[in-house]
Amino acid sequence: MKRVTQALRQCGLRPIVTWLVMAPALLLLAATAAADPQRWQLNMAPGVTETSQSVYGLHMIILWVCVAVAIVVFGAMAYCMFAFRKSRGAVADTSLVHSTPVEIVWTTIPVIILIVMAIPSTRVMLSMADVRNAEMTVKVTGYQWKWRYEYVGTPVNFVSSLARDSDRTRQLRSGLDPAALAKDGVNTYLLDVDKPLVLPINTKIRFVVTADDVIHAWWVPALGWKQDAIPGFVNEAWTDIKTPGTYRGVCAELCGKDHGFMPIVVRAVPKEEFKQWLAAQPANPGSVSAMAASAAVPTPGAASTASAAAVIPEAAR
Ligand SMILES: [Cu+2]
């Protein structure tokens, strides 16, 4: 090893080699630092949830399998084209045409590769679908062109729509600069809302997702999944956010003229802060889950008049 380092130093290659070793590590670091997608980002970000990180891991495994397959296949093609070229007097070998052993080999190898890839994929997909043992449930309803969030079992529910400053800026000939809406260096133009969805970290949260008019899709890349919001259907998903922060997403199903103007903002906070936030929210007796909650509270009218603290589910306390 010492001799290798010495040789590298002598020929002046040492800094280059150091950079070659360091660059992937730095890139990985940059990717983990930014949970939301960045401009010119080449790879997926690992996200901030268990699911998003397993999806990222899966994506990397499959990527490297594809790279290995590409190297073998294109390498063999390049070698054959060069080594067996006509100018060297090569004659086409017809023994491989309609050859049963060759057919068997090149069918079996891809099948084995696909089976090997299916094992980790199925594991991740099953875990993504497993909404059992959730500590709280949030109902998400898509509307043209906003989202309603209901903290099931509490009287808290509200509508989250595009932030006023983004809305003003997007108007035709508004003359306003979208770049002026950046917050802490993050561009929030069309990616900000009036009321973000606040969630506790380190909590398994189940989502039930539906829509009230047309099909929408609820998507926050940092959480690692998107879920269709379909009128008349209730789809499920879950998340367990590990890192506090603000994560942004958008509606991911073309839903009408303002499809591009119904962003999603998730603010993940420590459990204690979430409890305080939830307790401070005004009760909204108009919602279905609020009515169910008030029915569950023994003192009549308590849920609709008291603050949300009265019916915060046990898990959120
Ligand atoms: Cu939509």
Question: How would you sum up this structure, described in words?
Answer:
By secondary structure, this protein is of the alpha+beta class. The chain has 3 domains: 33 residues, no CATH class; 78 residues, Helix Hairpins, CATH 1.10.287; 181 residues, Immunoglobulin-like (Sandwich). Helix content is 39%, strand content 18%. The strands form 2 sheets. A 5-stranded mixed beta sheet has the order 3-2-1-5-8, with no helix packed on it. Strands 4-10-9-6-7 form a 5-stranded mixed beta sheet, covered by helices on one side. Strand 2 and strand 3 form a beta hairpin.
Q: Any idea of the CATH topology of the largest domain?
A: Immunoglobulin-like
Q: Which molecules other than protein and nucleic acid are bound?
A: copper (II) ion
Described by the principal axes of the CA atoms, the overall outline is elongated
Fraction of residues in β-strands: 15-25%
Percentage of residues assigned to helices: 25-40%
